Amino acid sequence: MIGLSHYLILSAILFSIGLVGVIRRRNLLMLFFATEIMLNAANIAFAALSSYMHDLSGQMFAFFIIAVAASEVAVGLGLLILLYKKYGSLDLDDYTMLRG
Amino acid sequence: METLVYIALFAPLVGSLFAALFGMRPKTLWTGVVTSLLLFVSFLASAMLLKHVYTVGAVHAELMDWIVAGDMRVPFGFTVDEVTAVMMTVVTLVSTVVHIYSNGYMEHDKGFNRFFSYLSAFVFSMLVLVMSDNFLGLFIGWEGVGVCSWLLIGFWYHKPDVGRDVNPSISPSWAANEAFIMNRIADLGMLIGIFLIYWNVGSLNYQEFFAAVPQLSHGMLVLIGIMLFIGAMGKSAQFPLHTWLADAMEGPTPVSALIHAATMVTAGVYLVIRAHPLYSEIPEVSYFIAVLGTFVAIFAASMALVNRDLKRIIAYSTLSQLGYMFAAAGLGAYWVALFHLAAHAFFKALLFLGAGNVMHAMNDELDIFKMGGLKKVMRWTYTYMGVASLALAGIWPFAGFYSKDTILEAAFNEQSYGIWFVLWLTAGLTAFYSFRLVFLTFLSDERYKQYGFHPHEVQKYVLWAMFPLGLLAVIFGWWKEEFMAFVTRLLPAYEMSEHTEHMVWILIIVTMAIAIGGIVVAYIMYAKRLRRNERIEQSLPYRILSNQYYIPIFYEKAFAKPYAELSDIAWKEIDQQVVDATVDGIARVIEETGDGTRRMQTGNLSDYLKWMAAGALILAVLAIIVAMNH
Amino acid sequence: METFAFYFFAVLITALFLVTVLSQNILYAMTSLAAGMVLISGLFFLLGADFLGVVQLIVYVGAVMALYAFAMMFFDATGSIKERHSHPALVFLLGGLSAVLMVVIFAAPQIGQHVEALYPAAAGANNPQAVGLVLFTKYLVPFEVAAVMLLVAMIAGIILAGKKMERSLSKINDSELEQNGGKDEQ
Description:
A: mainly alpha; B: 630 residues
C-alpha cells in the first residue's frame, strides 16, 4: 500500500535532483529546466498531501505554482534572449558582472 | 495668585535667555537693563506674594506633570509659604540690586552680556530651589545654582594657573572646578538622602514626607537627616567641604555678593529649615549640626583674622556666619536661623558690593595692606561698608545685632554653654576682623600712593542701587517681632525659658562688650597706620592661619594627587590596555572576517547558488534539531 | 495495482529527470524533461487530482515545453554543451545531503502523522467540481491575482523577447525604424 510518505520521499528526491541541476549546470537554459524540476517536485508533495488529507487547498497551491512557473518561463525566457543577444552565450561562467 | 508665582519664577529665566541670545556679542547696554528690569518685576511679584502669604496664606501652584513612571509621580509643583516667601523676597531683592550694580561694575568687561545671562539663570535656579514643593525640584534648583556658580566663578576662565603662593585660589577655572567637584561630593550624599526618602515614603513631596516622618524608624530618620545634611554641608561650605568658598572669590565681585554670600550658600541652611519636621525628630543629628556650625564659625573667623585679601576676609566671615545659622538651626531655633539668613544676606551683599567698589577704584588690587585712607575719595562706599561691618559685628541697633544676639540667647537657653561661649568669642573675632578690614582700607595712612593707584568713587547710580541694602542692614532687625510672628506660623516657635528671660540683658551687654572690644582693638592696632610685626608674622600660629590651616595643601596631597595617579593608572593600564584593546580587537576580527569572506564574492552566479544551497542545508539541519528538542 | 503504478511512475520520473540534469545534450535534456512532466501528471491522476493532472499536461507539456522549444531555436543549442565543473563532488554532496535531510524530515513521525486538514473537501463531488467550488469561493482573490500576473508576464515576455529582435533581425536602418515606430504608435 502506498502511503503519504512514499509520495513525500519521491518529492524530496526529485527536489534534490533539481537542486543538483541548479548547482551543477552552467548553462542558463539548463538552470531553468532544473528549476522546473524543483517546482514539480513541490507540486507532487502538495497534491499528495491534498489527497491524503482530503483538503483541496494543496491542489490550489499546486495550481498557483503552475501559474507562477508559466509566468516565470515567459519572463525568464525573454530575459534570456536579451542576455544572449548581448553576450552571445548562455554560460554562467561568462557573466562576472557581480564580481566585487 | 498662581500668575504671580509664575511671574516671579520665570521673569529671571526670560531675562537669562534674552541675554543669552546676545551672549557672544560685545557689550550691549540693554541686555543689562532688560535683565535688571525683569529681576525687578520678579522682586515686585515676590513682594506681592509675601503680602499675600501674610494676609491670606500659602499659595500652591502646579505647572504640569514632570515625571510619571509607574507609582512615581513628580509634578512641577511650587509652594509659596512663609519660609519660601521670605527667601524669595530676599533673593530677588539682593539679585535686583546686584544686577543694577553689575551694570556699572562690568561696564568694561568683554563678557558683559554673557555675565547677565549667567546671573539671571542663577536667580531662576535659586527660585526653583526655594519654591519647589518636592525634593526633586529642590535638587534640580540645587544643581542649577551649582552650575551657574561654576560658570560665574570661572567667568574669567582665560586667566592662567599660578602657584599657590602667588594666588591661593590658583586660577578662576581651577576655583570653579574645585567648587563644582566639592559640591558633587556633597550632592551624592543629598541624592542618597532623596533616594532613601522615596524608598521609604514613596513620595518626594515635602508635605507627604513630613506627614510620614513619625512612622519611620529612628535609625532611618537619622540616616536621611545625615545624608541631607551632607548635601547642605557642601552647598553651605561647612567643614570639611569649606575650601571652595574662599577660592570662589575668583569670580567677579557681584557674583561673590549674590551667590557666595547672600543666596546660594544659604541654600544648605534653607534645606535644614525646610526639613525641620525631620530634624526635630532627631535631636542627636541636630546637636551635631549645631556643634559643627559653632566650630565652623570660630574656625573661619580665625582664618579671617590674618588674611590680607579683601574678598577672602569677607568670604571667611560668610563662612563664619553660615556657622551661626547652622548653630541656630541645630539648636531648634529655626526661625532665628532664617532671620539671621535674611539679615546676613542684606549686610553681607552690601559688604561685598562695597568691596567691589574698592576693587574698582584700586584696579582690582585686593591686598588691604596696600590700601588705606580711602575714606577721602570714597565717602559713600566707606559709609556703606561701615554700616555693613557694624551690622556684621552685631552692634545695636543694626540688623546683625538682633539676629546674632538671638542666636546667642538660644544657645544659652539650651544650656549649651560651650556653644554659647564659642559663639560669643567668635562675635568678638568677627568685630575685630571686620573693622581691621574697614580701618586698613579706609582709615590709616594712604599707602596706596606708594603703589601708584588713583582711586575714584564709582558711578552715582551704582551707589544708589546699594541704598536699599544699606537701609535694610540698618533697620531690618527692628522687625524681629513681626518676622517671628510671621514665620512661626510655619516653623516651630522657639520659647526662651524664664531663666533666660532674666538673663537677657546681661547676655546682651556681654555680647555687646566683646563686639565693641573687638572694634576697639582693631582701632588701636590699625586705625592710625599699619603696624606690622615681623616676629608675629613669622610665628607658627600666624602661618597656620594664613595658610588656612594647611587644609588646601593637605587636600591636594591626600586626595587630589593620589586620585590623579589613580586616574593615570586607570587611563594607561585599564583604558588603553583593556578597553581600547577590546574595541580594537572587535574591529580587527570583523575586518579579518570580511577580508576572508571576500573571496566568496566571485561574481559567478553558480558559486552563489552553491552557497545558497549550503545555507539552506544548514537551515534544514537547524530545523531538525529544533524539531527534535520539542 | 496502485503500488505498481506508483513505483513505475516514480522510477521513470526519477530516471528521466536525472537525464535532464546530467545530459550534455540540451535536446535530450528537454525531451526527457517533457516526458517527466507527462509522467508527473500520471501521478496526479493516481492521487485523484484529475483536474490538476489535466492542467499539468496542458500548461507544462503544452505551453511551457513549447516555449522552451521555441527559445532553443534562438540559442542554437543543438550541439552539446561544454561545462567546466570545479567541484563535482561538492555538488553531489550538497544534493545528496539535502535529499537525505528532506527524506528524514518527511519520514519523521512528527510530520507525517500530525498533519490535519484545515478545509476538508466537499464530499460527494468529483474532483473538477470540488476544485471549482474551492477555487471560486475561498481562493477567488488569489485566482484573479494569478490571472493578472499571467497577463503581466505575457506582456513582459512579448516586450522582452520581441523588441530588440526586430531591430537586430531586420536589416532596416535606424531612421526607418523610428518612422515605423512612430506609425505604430499612431
